[in-house]
Amino acid sequence: MFKSSPHKEGVGGGMLALVQSTSEDALREHGCRIYAHWGNIYAAAVPKRELAALSLRPEVLRIENGRVCDAMTDTSAIVTRSDVLRYPTHSRPAYTGRGVVVGVMDIGFDLTNPTFYSRDLGTYRIRSFWDMLDFEGQEATDDGQQTTVNGLELPIGKAYTSSMDVLRKACSSDSRLQFHGTHTASTAVGSGYDSPYIGTAPDADICLVSNAVSDDKELVPDSLWDLYGSAIDLLGFEYIFRYADKVGKPCVISFSEGSHEDLWGEAQLYSTVLDSLVRPGRIICTAAGNQSYRGTYMQKPFGKERVAALLQPTGKTTYMMLRSKGDFNIRLDFMGSPTEHFCTYDVPVQDILATEDSLLIDTITAGNLTYELTFGSYACCYDSTQLVTDVVITKIGKGLITSVRTALSIYGEESEVEVFQEIGYLQNNHDYPDYQDAEYTHNVLFPSTDPSVICVGATSYKTGYFNFDGKWKTEQWGSGGEVATYSSRGPTLAGHIKPDVVAPGTLIVAAFNSFYVEMNPSNNTSNADVARYSFRGRDYA
User: What pLDDT was estimated at residue 520?
Assistant: First the structure.
């Protein structure tokens, strides 16, 4: 349970946001608590009751409260044949991470795993750990201030700033649900203990931050959930870099989480802060994502009349963004099978623009299902001459969603339209020959899309592995060092070429969170326990 403390007054029921303001006093006058700032961008807890009034202040230029990320098993393997770098040559020293701080912000850490010691077990290498979900351990001083760490006041959770305290903590507070961070950290900094599976920087000092992802919501009181998101993740980066500055060492941060890009500019302040954090001696490596195994993009160029693809839902809601120049029509077809067509919904984009607030909401019944259709148009944050149209299809009421197939078509020869899938997927299916234009690109996740970070994609060498029972398990994600079929590909929505580098990310053997196994004895971890099994990883940062 959450232990209340004086410094939480005015924070529970508020949200942690990035606020760009020409005046710090403007924030304080509305009860905001400031935790850090980068130039005129503040990470501040904003009382929700004050949000509207704060947004109207002339000093306040922008407010962002970015979404919580999702975890990705993605990119810590870094470089093929990197083991040779651990040995010195006549022209260079050994590269083992000695003298460097490696920071990992992730979820599900087993802090006791022997791979986080030196190989001879003589030195425990995790020097500092901030658990953002540690409500039991968090403390406040008598004046209501959270104890600061290297000058940074923590809005939530608890920091463990000595190796002895970290070991006593034993595991991150989300270990009942998560194991991802143990896996990613071990591939980056694991010593391997008594195994041949050694990470890239086995002699580096380690600084960890356990943040929150979308799957952690059940662990967080409702009144505190809005403290998690892009602002607190930036504070996590700041926490790691401040530790490295304190000990006078360069720092590399690995971050294997992300969320979809948008075209309304939700992460503009986040990007500005990232740019200010990264400099010589400070690097952030991030995972590209695992989105390319399904269709995520479709393009209709000028001069082509139509493109179309099936929509594959992952829940009740399917959502896509359309970026366009010129007039076009959106058509949704609802079908029971290739030979059974229920109905069509056709809307010109000009009809959407003609509605109040450029927002059109309607319903349609197809087969035994009813859908709410929402269309909203606005200017693109990257180019105001381009129009963005959100299309949201939500099943309402009862009925099996798979009983109706939905398809999207874009019409209009004199237009250029790109479709970016946000929730659900685009699909080509040979049974529906008129819907074959889905592509598997433009799906790198943020913050990997940002120019300031090094975006790492995954390659694939192995096509299978022997499990603990000696049985061969096949995994067909590519071979021979080609980019893995699941690994996200650019370009980004802003046109940047990503990923920046690729590295082995498929069937990577790595450490596992023993506390997750202990707390979930009925779960099948036979594909994951590194002491006995080979984990089917993706890419890491």
Answer: 78
